[in-house]
Task: inverse folding
């Protein structure tokens, strides 16, 4: 386990415990129906970045200018104003374009770490954020294995910003804006079961064109966004050191292994210290009077 993964796991475990979310950490999300997601076929992506434009227009974000902003000349991460980005990678198969956004984990660490349930895994599948519940602790940022949630540090009323898989559109019976905008059929929307069947069929029918693996099938317990590739996924900038166990499972094992009294002892002692110090100051003041 590397340093980055350790801090992600430790942060998720500690924050969940201190928030008193033992019950939530024990229970896995069991949807009434199959989660929906998106299959990203990187062998088909042409780097047009129309998905970025459609995302921005759908969510009232600054609209990028793919023809003039030279966005493919550098490696970009998602931001508070750009919930999805397309990067160009030099690989063994030449240039490959890869769309990145929230992976919408089946058992999201961000939701498990959130002490107020502001981050929610919906029954449909998208992981969304509720502003009226958020207290700004940013534990979701610490816990996310893909480092996706972004915080509006410069806003007087800061929010957590990330892809929500166009949840409002899904509720209206529409597909995500990025999927609708893709001219190369590189994005496919559907249930996780349907997407897995399509992905396996493409690998089976075109074995020379794909790595025989579906990224997101098992990573961190499975994600609702899946990737196909002609080259090893590490060449596409997708993290390969996350493991197959969902991060909330690590949290649950941590909570079982460490009695709650030890997790709660530091804040308890700090509170007692503050009360004692305050009481002593009051006594000294009374003596002076």
Result:
């Amino acid at each position: 386990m590397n340093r980055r993964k350790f801090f992600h796991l430790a942060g998720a475990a500690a924050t969940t415990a201190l928030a008193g979310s033992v019950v939530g950490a024990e229970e896995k999300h069991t949807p009434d129906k199959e989660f929906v997601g998106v299959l990203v076929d990187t062998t088909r992506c042409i780097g047009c970045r129309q998905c970025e434009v459609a995302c921005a227009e759908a969510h009232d974000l600054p609209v990028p200018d793919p023809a003039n902003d030279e966005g493919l000349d550098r490696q970009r991460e998602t931001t508070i104003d750009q919930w999805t980005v397309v990067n160009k990678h030099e690989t063994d198969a030449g240039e490959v374009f890869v769309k990145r956004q929230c992976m919408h984990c089946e058992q999201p660490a961000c939701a498990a770490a959130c002490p107020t349930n502001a981050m929610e895994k919906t029954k449909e599948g998208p992981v969304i954020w509720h502003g009226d519940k958020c207290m700004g602790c940013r534990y979701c940022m610490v816990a996310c294995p893909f480092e996706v949630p972004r915080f509006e540090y410069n806003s007087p009323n800061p929010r957590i910003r990330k892809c929500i898989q166009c949840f409002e559109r899904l509720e209206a019976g529409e597909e995500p804006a990025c999927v609708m905008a893709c001219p190369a059929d590189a994005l496919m929307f559907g249930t996780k079961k349907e997407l897995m069947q399509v992905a396996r069929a493409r690998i089976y029918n075109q074995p020379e064109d794909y790595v025989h693996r579906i990224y997101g099938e098992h990573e961190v317990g499975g994600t609702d966004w899946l990737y196909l590739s002609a080259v090893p996924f590490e060449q596409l900038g997708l993290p390969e050191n996350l493991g197959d166990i969902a991060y909330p499972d690590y949290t649950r094992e941590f909570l079982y292994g460490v009695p709650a009294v030890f997790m709660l002892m530091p804040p308890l002692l700090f509170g007692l210290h503050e009360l004692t110090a305050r009481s002593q100051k009051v006594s000294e003041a009374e003596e002076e009077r």
The chain is about 35% helix and 15% strand. The chain has two domains: 3-253, 259-288. The first strand starts at residue 36 and ends at 41. Residues 3-253 form a domain with the Alpha-Beta Plaits fold (CATH 3.30.70.20).
